[in-house]
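Task card 7
Instruction: Convert sequence to structure tokens.
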Amino acid sequence: MIYTLDKPADQLSEKILCWYINITSKVQVIRISNIPNWYFERTVFPGERFIFESFSQAELEIYQKDQNNTIFCQQRLCCELEVEEDKDS
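Output:
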């Protein structure tokens, strides 16, 4: 499933197909907020694999609670999460 909300700004580069997998045992919230006029947020459950469209310059923010219920955030560039096409298929 591909989830996008709002129309992205016209001056941005072409969209790329990205993937993310929650390898933890905790529920995570992922979001992209650094693209003007575009908003993306999704809950990702433990073990869930998620494919989405984004822009190479977008930053995926990954939010998760730790054992003390403190929320922490990791960031990944979407260009690092791009799905690579298998040339042999």
